[in-house]
Amino acid sequence: MPHAEGMDTFDLGRLALESGASLPGRLVYATHGTLAPERDNVVLVPSYYTGTHDSYLPWIGPGRVLDTDRWFVVVVDMLGNGLSTSPSNADPEVRGPRFPLVTVRDQVRAQRLLLDHLGVRRLRLVMGWSMGAMQAYEWAVSHPGDVDALLAIAGAARCSPHNHVFLEGARAALRADPAFAGGAYDVPPVAGLRAFGTVYAGWAYSRDFFHDRAYQALGYADVDAVLEDWARDHEGRDAGDLLAMMDTWQSGDVGRGRPGGYEAALGSITARSIVMPSTTDQYFTLADSRIEADLVPGAELRPLVSDLGHVAGRPGVREAETAVVAGAVRDLLHRA
Length: 336
Fold this sequence. Notes:
The chain has 336 residues and is α/β, with parallel strands linked by helices. The protein contains 10 helices and 8 strands. The protein has an 8-stranded mixed β-sheet with strand order 1-2-4-3-5-6-7-8, with helices on both faces. α9 links the parallel β7 (272-276) and β8 (300-301). The longest helix has 16 residues, at 319-334. The chain starts with 5 loop residues before the first strand and ends with a helix.
């Protein structure tokens, strides 16, 4: 019976991708808690953009949002995130700019293989923030019989046109650095990475976050400190990994290639569902989440009222938002 607290690796072999290409790959993941003899206490948490399995640690542990005294929590690193197979660490044939498109559906297919390896079929809950929510939606559509409950926090079932435009702005800022060299860079394109982070900062938070100086409660002295923190954070990341994850993000659409498209795909979800947008998110918007919640049978729209913008749902940022997420997890895991 698996009982682990830490990182492990699963060899995917050559993963067949939606595009028709294949990826020699591996998934990095972490498990927390004890798998029940019936294997019916599993919560799956896919990683988010620039996040890793460690990013969810503020929510995981005895008595926390994901109580490891009761639940076996599997946190999976997306392909492209720098730990699982990514442009920065892939085999030479697919390294750097040769890395293929890995869609959200491809990510879920890889995660299904991992869970099969772990001997897990049924998931009591699939949940995630941001891109983690996109993968959770795809799980609920692709494997309806295996998913009891769905919690989508500040995410969406597809990348909206407005969201696509935001991402293209950040992409253009990175690619404009001559050092990027079309992705075949020999040294990190630092100026482009910093520009990417600077553009991103303005979308991550809300108007009220800046107007009311809520950033001070997060340890920032002023607006310039926010910008510098985001620029410095992205400066340390791999450009190819950032763009590969962005490609995955933009590919997100549960209806693509399915009869009836987006509406029918969401209508096929049988999991108990809570859709939790941030009320001030600028790209995974409340308006889009309301449409999705209306399309998922029986889903509850439970907005996360916050001035943090998209960041409202990120683990470990602020206790008030964490308490709301914890309440949703309790309701989904303990409701018959």
